[in-house]
Amino acid sequence: MKVAVIGTGYVGLVTGVVLAELGNDVICVDNDQSKLDSIQRGESPIYEPGLEELMRKGIHEGFLTVSNSIADAASKSEVIFIAVGTPPGDDGTPDLTAVRAVAKSIGQAITHQTVVVNKSTVPVGSGELVEQIILEQGVPAHLFDVVSNPEFLREGSAIHDTLHPDRIVIGAKKKEAAMRLVELYATLEAPMVITDLNSAELIKYASNSFLAMKISFINAISRICELADANVADVSKGMGMDKRIGSQFLSAGLGWGGSCFPKDVLGMLSTAKRYGYDFDLMQNVIDINDDQTLNFVRRIEKRLGGLAGKRIGIMGLAFKPNTDDIRDAKSLIIVEEIVKAGGIVSAYDPIAAENFKRVFPNIEYKDGVYDVSEDADALVLVTEWNEFRQLDLNRLGSKMKTRVLFDGRRVYKRETAERAGFDYYTIGSR
Ligand code: UDX
């Protein structure tokens, strides 16, 4: 099939590259020429394991091309994906400026039968909005259909998630339009949910809000475990073995961050409010998440007898492993709190340091994890990178002022850390 994907961010580029891999003719469109140049050179503008290789393959085999013109791409395509950013506005409602602008350009370009697919995470009713904007450009209703096809890929495993989705959600007014997408995804052999536009849009918000709620729930339990001298890992294991609960997204830690959960939980809240329903539960989910990180900082502060003048080594800055993304990363809050209290931060992350430097140019950045421990009063593990699991803890502690380790992701076994002479603190257990 001939496909255009507007927006070469996370969702757009991965979608374009995977659809090219499945044998479609894909044009990736962006108004940022530097991104297109980078794709053209075979360099992925974002870090994602496996993406660059597949992207190069698509370009080499001629299935993947780039363009800076929506009109050009639309004239050559049967299906156009909108995959542009929808950042949260001041009240949490996603900002649809980019979606509106793209819909207008598509409307000005449609000359033949086209399916316009909304892949960006958008509030309920956005499919209707896109349809309206295209109609306003004078396109007859019979010439196009708008379909909602939300994305569920995770950063760090985006290619795998796109090639092996748990389900594909397709929302459309007309069955024929939905069937075009069924055809496009047929080779993935994934279960498909075909529904109306509003339900498809809501599935995305409800799914991410539920997952964030699951994490906040286990984090609240982790606090009770700390107070009751129980172990959250065992509680989580015991809960997760119940198939109705499931073991995934039940790892207690510093809380959830990233480009989706914070935005989508807020989006869920504001959507509910717009329809006159107070979804207080979601506000609690946010509050628990915020408090989880701040409580950890308070514990560090208490153990060190204040943070002023204390040197703290931060292990990991990315919001989760295998990405250089620091959007809503817990490291941002932890570093901010330490700096605010007069502490000295020395940080290491395998790939996210460059992004972090733009927000905190004045903290110390080290090239290796053993360097952050030098003269440190405490180490704080924020991101559970695999390389942190294999460390020689004796070596890690050898240059520290005091061997204090705060493990925000429950990476180490207490006995191992204590054997290496550390005073070990974690989440959800003694
Ligand atoms: C998420 C959704 O999983 C994905 O379906 C959607 O398309 C985009 O948002 P992503 O943000 O890439 O994906 O990361 P994910 O792996 O879901 O982790 C989100 C956050 O939750 C991270 O900060 C992670 O550290 C945290 N998390 C996850 C936990 O604290 N505990 C868990 O058990 C799982």
Biggest sheet character: 8 strands, mixed
Give the structural class: alpha/beta
Output the CATH class name of the largest domain: Alpha Beta
The DSSP helix count reads 18
CATH H-level homologous superfamily name of the largest domain = NAD(P)-binding Rossmann-like Domain
Number of beta strands = 14
Unreliable residue stretches? none
Q: What portion of residues is helical?
A: 40-55%
How far apart are the first and last residues' alpha carbons, in Å? Answer: 57 Å
- Taking all residues together, what is the mean pLDDT? 96
* CATH A-level architecture of the largest domain: 3-Layer(aba) Sandwich
Fraction of residues in β-strands: 5-15%
The CATH topology assignment of the largest domain is Rossmann fold
- Radius of gyration over C-alpha positions, nearest whole angstrom: 23 Å
Spell out the blueprint of helices and strands.
Layout: E1 2-6, H1 10-21, E2 25-29, H2 33-40, H3 51-61, E3 64-67, H4 70-75, E4 79-82, H5 97-109, E5 114-118, H6 126-136, E6 144-148, H7 158-163, E7 168-172, H8 175-185, E8 192-195, H9 197-228, H10 232-240, H11 261-274, H12 280-304, E9 311-315, H13 330-340, E10 344-348, H14 353-359, E11 364-365, H15 369-372, E12 378-381, H16 386-389, H17 393-398, E13 404-407, H18 414-419, E14 423-426
Parallel strand pairs: 1-2, 1-4, 2-3, 4-5, 5-6, 7-8, 9-10, 9-12, 10-11, 12-13, 13-14
Antiparallel strand pairs: 6-7
Helix pairs in contact: 1-3, 5-6, 9-11, 9-12, 11-12
Bound molecules: uridine-5'-diphosphate-xylopyranose.
